[in-house]
Amino acid sequence: MNGHVFLAAIFATPLFGLLVDRVGHRALFMAAGSLCLFAAFPLMAYTHASLWWPTVLLGIAFSLVPAVIWPAVPYLVEANRLGTAYGLMTMLQNIGMMVFNLAAGMLNDRARAGEANPGGYLPMLWMFAVLSLIGLGFALLLRLRETGPKGHGLEQAKLGA
CA-CA distances (angstroms) from residue 21 to 39, 40, 68, 105, 140? Predict the structure, then answer.
């Protein structure tokens, strides 16, 4: 089931990229992706819905956010600093994945999560839900800035420009 998230991303990410190029609203799409990500965790934690639904939400989020954030970098960073910007983004992303995967494991271990205690996964799910909400907050702050006088054009369509 977990592999389906990434299989969907293979096809969905370029389609989301094309959509964002055509309509703009990059910060708004990042907020939508963060909201999908947030919705997946309580759905897994508190419902008996098929895992297909949160998997779809995770797939959308894992496709939509990268399709927006990585191509947005040239609008925000000078051309002679793009390599550094992408390098720092990759480094921070990998540090975040390492730290929060370790934290998830620690939370699961402390709560004795497992087949005999599925409720032990709740702290981990809440950690990821809170991180999703923080991402949503940053996306909304970006949208606020980009729709104001100090915007960088992220909310504008750029196809053919």
Answer: 26, 26, 9, 38, 19
Distance of CA 93 to the CA centre of its chain: 11
CA distance linking residue 72 with residue 153, whole number of Å: 9
The pTM is what? 0.87
Domain range enclosing 132: 2-75+124-146
AA identity, residue 114: G
On whether residue 97 sits in a domain, the answer given is no
Q: Please state, in angstroms and rounded to a whole number, the distance separating the CA atoms of residues 135 and 56.
A: 19
Residues of the chain with pLDDT under 70: 159-161
Q: Is residue 38 part of a domain?
A: yes
In whole angstroms, give the CA distance from residue 51 to residue 150.
Answer: 42
Amino acid at 81: R
Domain count across the chain:
1
In a domain, 95, yes or no: no
CB 37 within 8 A of CB 135: yes
Q: How many other CB atoms are found less than 10 A from the CB of residue 40?
A: 25
User: What pLDDT sits at residue 85?
Assistant: 96
Q: What pLDDT shows up at residue 156?
A: 85
Taking only the tens place, the pLDDT of each residue in 99-125 is 999 999 999 999 999 999 999 999 999
